[in-house]
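dumping the sequnces here before i forget
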Amino acid sequence: MIKKKIVTIVGAGVIGAGWAARMLACGLIVNAYDPSVKARKQLLFNTKTALKSLQRLGLNKNAKLSNLKIYSDLKESLHLTTFVQENAPENEKLKKKLLKDIDKLLPKNIIIASSSSGLLPTRIQSLCNYPERVCIGHPFNPVYLLPLVELVSGKQTKKNTIIRAKKFYEEIGMKPLIVKKEIEGYISDRLQEALWREALHIIKDGIASTQDVDDAIVYGPGLRWSFMGVCLTFHLAGGQTGMKHMLEQFGPALKLPWTKLKAPKLDAKLKKLMISGTKKQAGKYTIKDLEVQRDIFLIEIMKTLNKYQSNNFPNWNKTFNKF
Ligand SMILES: NC(=O)c1ccc[n+]([C@@H]2O[C@H](COP(=O)([O-])OP(=O)(O)OC[C@H]3O[C@@H](n4cnc5c(N)ncnc54)[C@H](O)[C@@H]3O)[C@@H](O)[C@H]2O)c1
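..and the predicted 3d for all of it:
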């Protein structure tokens, strides 16, 4: 008989539910722990919706919702688990204590990966007895569709932990990116943050509405970015001599005041502009409606990407048939 693999999700909000759906889609058994009754109820609903989206990509033959086991007790959720993904709120003190509790309850070879968006792993692993098995595995929302996961080591993380975590994430159809040096915000969130800060300045200074700022990405660079990142895009912007010409032509612009980067003060006026602007953009659609539309769109983009970059595409049917 084929032995099934159990993984544990600790913290089952937006990101925890996303991990649960991805792992279920790969045919794994998912134990999910959350201290909140509301979150545990919501998890079932969110996972069901996500699995519906994932059907368009094709599920593993062992995938079923009944493989999701929901727990209100941390210890029970960790029984016989082979991998732990922590998704509690982004709070260093809370994560430190939670990781310490998880660490105490697990054999020392089981990896504990945190979904943290930017905390330093050296700090959050510091209270563990076996900090060498702790790392960051930072995903992107919706986790069940987007392949990227950033892997970050703390000072005490063993190299082998990263190798094993990378292998696991690849098996569940992801694209792991190993961050070479520990830094707050890692890679992708630092890039997004630069754009976000600039967007806030543009709106605060009355240069554009939230809709204009979004259009400036969606109809332009955003379309290119789903295929090529900023470096290769600019290589092509330099004509036949590529980046060399690009740097010669636009290098001097780096000295122009084209960016503010330092975040503006998030005062009441700016908050109002952001909230009313995005509400107007959403129009009659609820967040759930928009999530469904986004998933359909992402799946189509990923199918197109697959034609050109087959290695980056999750293939549920290939993964985990061995379990
Ligand atoms: N939302 C995103 O886009 C995003 C993307 C990538 C990574 N992350 C990271 O993922 C983590 C979770 O974020 P989220 O957006 O899912 O938050 P969320 O608020 O939706 O979910 C957090 C969940 O953790 C639970 N929780 C609270 N205390 C807990 C504890 N002691 N032990 C276990 N669970 C506990 C809460 O009940 C809640 O259900 C954060 O570290 C965040 O930075 C978020």
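The CA atoms of residues 27 and 63 lie 4 Å apart.
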